């Protein structure tokens, strides 16, 4: 137990604990990374192989369509159709006629790549082009002719030409378009097998990745049409259904795709070593990283544990000298640089805390005095109202009735606006109309003879509850952007009435005879409403946006919000409809 107690030190505990944690972390991360990246590498390799095979298949389909289009042009050529129709009618064709039709066929052949020659036969197998007397049955087997007949005018790929190595034969029947597409002959095309080389489709990405891949195109009988294997291969072995094949001692991943148009197969071989090469490199890298990381962590843990444990006891003893109240610096000194730095840092902290305590104390005193002065400096709104009332009586005594009326209106306007929102969040339409009337009275005096206004209100609507300060912003907008923007006097009309066609609702509208707005300006305002920011054609849409937001906030689905109708030179009408009785009154 004595030796165990000596080894059971804080430094050894830290060192052992850090090492165990490090081993677990490195092993877990290494295994996880290896598994994930291995799967990723395999998936990427398989995906790359599939993409390459798809590219090769796509190129083959393009080549086949080109030949199909070319033979269809020959079969539907006007001269070919005319001659075969004459033959079908029993007319004898001269050698000169065959020369003419041969020139027509050669013209089409000149513009097509990969085509070695074109042969044209009648329905009874007599050759028209080239100018020889060989029969179609002498040229190909009856089995191939039967397959072409079953194609019903479609191009049929027959395979490698037994007579001419390196040539692929395809045939289609010629049908007369003017005789209800009756059978009239055959078109045979001889295509050079090099036309079907597919290696160009993979020269880009494969060259950059360094992956070796081999492609081969084989016909239905297993004959090789084109191949870049560079080695002796067994066609039956390639046509096996397995996913891997072994050739020349190397294992290959095989991907096989069959062409529906020809029945041929595209076989692609990729060495397995290329798909797994990255995995072995990854495994080696992870093992080396874990070993290097473990050694580095062991060294760093030993140093760190020594740095931590050695000054701890001395620092604890030094800190015990601190007492409650004002903190005191540590009087302990040491020859060790780390301990001196810790003592210096602690002493700086003590000095900073003492300064901070003093600053906080002074701030508390200043804040208390400031709050007292702010409380003493608050203006009682009633002082403002009483002062305006005094102005009113003074003007009354001097006979300034118009100014006295304006002062009373201003006093009522201030009293209405300054009152606490939580006490009067909801008012009646009558209160809002009185407030709008006071505002119009003040604006009438300010604008002299340029403003005339009327308020038309149904008495049954004056008691309808409404959020405070919804109508006055519309009146203000009508004056600022309507009356003030026109040349000469202008009129603002405020109407309150039951909503037409919407029972149980009250309609409030404000109209002016100002210059109005065009469709683009109206669209900008509505866009501003829908996007939630404040804007208008004149750069001041805060009042309208506020009205729109408050309508939707207080009434939600019960209102359609603010509507604006305006025409240039005809004025603007702003209106909204609210429920006549929503229980808030």
**Large-scale geometry:** flat
CATH class term of the domain at 420-579: Alpha Beta
CATH architecture assignment name of the domain at 420-579: 2-Layer Sandwich
Fraction in helix: 40-55%
Beta-strand portion reads 15-25%
Calculate the mean pLDDT score and round it: 76
Rg over C-alpha atoms, rounded to the nearest angstrom? 49 Å
Oligomer: single chain
Biggest sheet strand order reads 2-1-5-4-3
CATH topology of the domain at 420-579: Heat Shock Protein 90
Low-confidence segments, ≥5 residues, pLDDT <50? 201-210, 370-380, 533-540
User: In this structure, how is the largest beta sheet organized?
Assistant: 5 strands, antiparallel
Helix vs. strand class: alpha+beta
For this structure, what is the CATH homologous superfamily of the domain at 420-579? Histidine kinase-like ATPase, C-terminal domain
State the helix count: 16
Number of strands: 17
- Termini Cα gap: 87 Å
């Amino acid at each position: 137990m004595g030796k165990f107690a000596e080894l059971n030190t804080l430094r050894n505990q830290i060192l052992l604990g850090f090492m165990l944690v490090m081993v677990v972390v490195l092993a877990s991360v290494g295994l996880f990374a290896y598994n994930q990246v291995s799967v990723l590498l395999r998936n990427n390799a398989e995906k790359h192989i599939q993409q390459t095979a798809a590219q090769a298949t796509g190129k083959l389909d393009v080549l086949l369509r080109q030949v199909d289009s070319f033979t269809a042009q020959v079969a539907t050529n006007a001269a070919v159709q005319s001659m075969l129709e004459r033959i079908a009618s029993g007319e004898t064709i001269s050698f000169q006629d065959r020369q003419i039709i041969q020139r027509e066929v050669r013209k089409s052949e000149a513009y097509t790549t990969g085509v070695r020659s074109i042969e044209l036969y009648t329905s009874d197998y007599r050759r028209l082009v080239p100018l020889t007397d060989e029969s179609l049955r002498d040229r190909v087997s009856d089995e191939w002719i039967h397959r072409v007949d079953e194609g019903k005018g479609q191009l049929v790929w027959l395979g490698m030409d037994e007579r001419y190595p390196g040539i692929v034969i395809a045939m289609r029947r010629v049908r007369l378009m003017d005789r209800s597409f009756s059978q009239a002959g055959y078109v045979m095309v001889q295509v050079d097998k090099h036309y079907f080389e597919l290696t160009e489709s993979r020269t880009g990405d494969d060259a950059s990745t360094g992956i070796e891949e081999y492609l081969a195109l084989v016909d239905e009988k297993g004959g090789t049409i084109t191949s870049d294997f560079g080695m002796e291969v067994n066609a039956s072995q390639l046509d096996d259904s397995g996913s891997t094949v072994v050739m020349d001692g190397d294992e290959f991943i095989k991907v096989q795709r069959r062409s529906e148009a020809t029945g041929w197969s595209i076989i692609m071989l990729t060495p397995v070593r290329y798909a797994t090469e990255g995995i072995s490199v990854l495994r080696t890298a992870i093992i080396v990283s874990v070993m290097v990381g473990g050694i580095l962590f062991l060294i760093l843990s030993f140093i760190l544990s020594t740095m931590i444990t050695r000054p701890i006891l001395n620092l604890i003893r030094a800190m015990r000298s601190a007492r409650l109240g004002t903190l005191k610096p540590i009087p302990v000194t040491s020859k060790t640089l780390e301990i001196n730095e810790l003592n210096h840092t602690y002493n700086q902290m003590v000095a900073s805390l003492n300064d901070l305590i003093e600053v906080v104390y002074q701030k508390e005193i200043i804040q208390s005095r400031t709050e007292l002065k702010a409380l003493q400096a608050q203006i009682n709104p009633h002082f403002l109202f009483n002062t305006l009332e005094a102005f009113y009586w003074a003007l009354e005594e001097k006979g300034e009735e118009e100014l006295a009326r304006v002062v009373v209106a201003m006093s009522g306007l201030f009293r209405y606006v300054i009152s606490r929102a939580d006490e009067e969040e909801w008012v009646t339409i009558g209160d809002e109309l009185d407030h709008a009337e006071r505002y119009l009275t003040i604006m009438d005096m300010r604008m002299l003879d340029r403003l005339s206004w009327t308020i038309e209100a149904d008495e049954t609507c004056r008691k309808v509850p409404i959020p405070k300060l919804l109508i006055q912003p519309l009146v203000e907008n009508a004056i600022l952007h309507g009356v003030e923007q026109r040349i000469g006097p202008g009129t603002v009309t405020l109407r309150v009435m039951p909503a037409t066609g919407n029972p149980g609702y009250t309609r409030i509208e404000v109209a002016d005879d100002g210059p109005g707005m065009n469709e683009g300006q109206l669209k900008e305002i509505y866009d501003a409403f829908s996007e939630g920011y404040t804007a208008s054609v004149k750069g001041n849409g805060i009042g309208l946006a506020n009205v729109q937001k408050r309508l939707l906030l207080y009434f939600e689905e019960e209102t359609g919000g603010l509507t604006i109708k305006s025409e240039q030179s005809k004025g603007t009408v702003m209106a909204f409809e609210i429920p006549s009785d929503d229980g808030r009154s």
